[in-house]
C-alpha cells in the first residue's frame, strides 16, 4: 500500500536512484502521474515533461481499456477488444474522440512549447499504476520513436498481466508491487484523489521555472 502518490513517488525515486546524475527526461502520463513525475525529476536531477496518450475505453465501461492511442495517432488494440464489443467502427470513433482530447490537453498543458528532446537520453515514463497496461504501451511506443538511449517504465504497482505486456517495450521496468489480487490501481493507495488540469499546469510551469515555488530549484 501507498499513502498517496507522493509516497509512491518517493519509493520509486529510491528504486531509480541509479539514474541520478544522468539528467534523465521524466515523462508523466497525465493526469495522475504528473505530481509523481515532478518529484522524480527533482530528486533525480532530471527534466519533467509529459507524454500524451489515451486509453480506448470499452463500449460499456469507461474504466476498462480495449486499446490505446498516442499523439501521432498510432493505436494499440488489445486482444480482448472484439470480445468486449469493440468492433472496427467503434474503435475508429473512440480513436477520433481520444485524439481530440489529446489535442485539448496539449494546448492546455504546454501551450507554445515544443516537447523536450528524448534523443540519446535516458527517458523514464511514469504512471501511477498499470491496470491493463494499454496506455503505458502506447506511451513507450511513442517515446521509442524519439530515439532515447535508454527507455524506462516506472510505476508503483501493476497487475502481473500488464507488467508482462509492457516489459518488452522498455529497456528497464521498475514496478514496486505486482500483487496477485490486483483489481484496480486505486486499491493500493490510501488516498487517491483525481488530479485536475490546473494541478498539471502548475507542476509543469514550476518545473520549467526553477525560481518558482516548488520549481526545479526547490529542494525535494
Structural class, please?
alpha/beta
Q: Please tally the helical runs, counting DSSP H or I stretches of 4 or more residues.
A: 6
Number of strands: 8
Mean pLDDT: 93
Portion in beta strands: 15-25%
- Across the major sheet, the strand order is 2-1-6-7-8
Label the overall shape: globular
CATH architecture of the domain at 5-52 and 114-207: 3-Layer(aba) Sandwich
Straight-line distance between termini:
22 Å
For the largest beta-sheet, the strand count, sense and barrel status come to: 5 strands, parallel
Q: Name the CATH class of the domain at 5-52 and 114-207.
A: Alpha Beta
N to C succession of SSEs: HEHEEEEHEHEHEH
**Topology-level CATH name of the domain at 5-52 and 114-207:** Rossmann fold
Low confidence ranges: 213-220
* Rg (CA only): 16 Å
Amount of helix: 25-40%
Organism: Hydrogenophaga borbori
GO molecular function: glycosyltransferase activity
InterPro entries: PRTase-like, PRTase_dom
Domain Phosphoribosyltransferase: 5-175
Features:
220 residues, alpha/beta, Rossmann fold, 5-stranded parallel sheet, 3-stranded antiparallel sheet, 6 helices, 8 strands, disordered C terminus
Summary, kept brief:
With 220 residues, this protein is α/β, with parallel strands linked by helices. The protein has six helices and eight strands. Mean pLDDT is 93; it is low at 213-220.
Characterise the protein shown here.
The protein has 220 residues and is of the alpha/beta class. It has a domain of 142 residues: Rossmann fold (3-Layer(aba) Sandwich). It is 34% helix and 21% strand. The protein has a five-stranded parallel sheet, sandwiched between helices. The protein has a three-stranded antiparallel sheet with strand order 3-4-5. A hairpin with a 4-residue loop joins β4 and β5. α1 packs parallel to α2 and α2 packs parallel to α6. The longest helix has 22 residues. It is globular, with a radius of gyration of 16 Å. It starts with a helix and ends in a 12-residue tail after the last helix. The relative contact order is 0.19.
Amino acid at each position: 500500500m501507498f499513502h498517496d502518490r507522493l509516497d509512491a513517488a518517493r519509493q520509486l525515486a529510491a528504486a531509480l536512484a541509479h539514474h541520478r546524475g544522468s539528467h534523465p527526461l521524466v515523462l508523466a502520463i497525465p493526469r495522475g502521474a504528473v505530481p509523481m513525475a515532478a518529484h522524480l525529476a527533482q530528486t533525480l536531477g532530471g527534466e519533467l515533461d509529459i507524454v500524451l496518450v489515451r486509453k480506448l475505453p470499452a463500449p460499456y465501461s469507461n474504466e476498462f481499456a480495449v486499446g490505446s492511442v498516442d499523439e501521432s495517432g498510432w493505436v494499440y488494440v488489445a486482444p480482448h477488444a472484439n470480445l468486449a464489443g469493440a468492433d472496427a467502427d467503434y474503435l475508429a470513433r473512440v480513436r477520433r474522440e481520444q485524439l481530440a482530447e489529446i489535442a485539448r490537453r496539449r494546448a492546455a498543458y504546454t501551450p507554445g512549447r515544443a516537447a523536450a528532446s528524448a534523443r540519446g537520453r535516458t527517458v523514464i515514463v511514469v504512471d501511477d499504476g498499470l491496470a491493463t497496461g494499454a496506455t503505458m504501451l502506447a506511451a513507450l511506443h511513442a517515446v521509442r520513436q524519439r530515439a532515447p538511449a535508454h527507455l524506462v517504465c516506472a510505476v508503483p504497482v501493476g497487475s502481473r498481466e500488464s507488467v508482462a505486456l509492457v516489459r518488452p517495450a522498455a529497456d528497464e521496468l521498475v514496478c514496486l508491487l505486482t500483487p496477485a489480487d490486483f483489481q484496480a490501481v486505486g486499491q493500493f493507495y490510501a488516498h487517491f484523489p483525481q488530479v485536475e488540469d490546473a494541478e498539471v499546469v502548475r507542476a509543469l510551469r514550476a518545473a520549467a521555472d526553477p525560481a518558482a515555488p516548488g520549481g526545479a530549484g526547490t529542494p525535494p
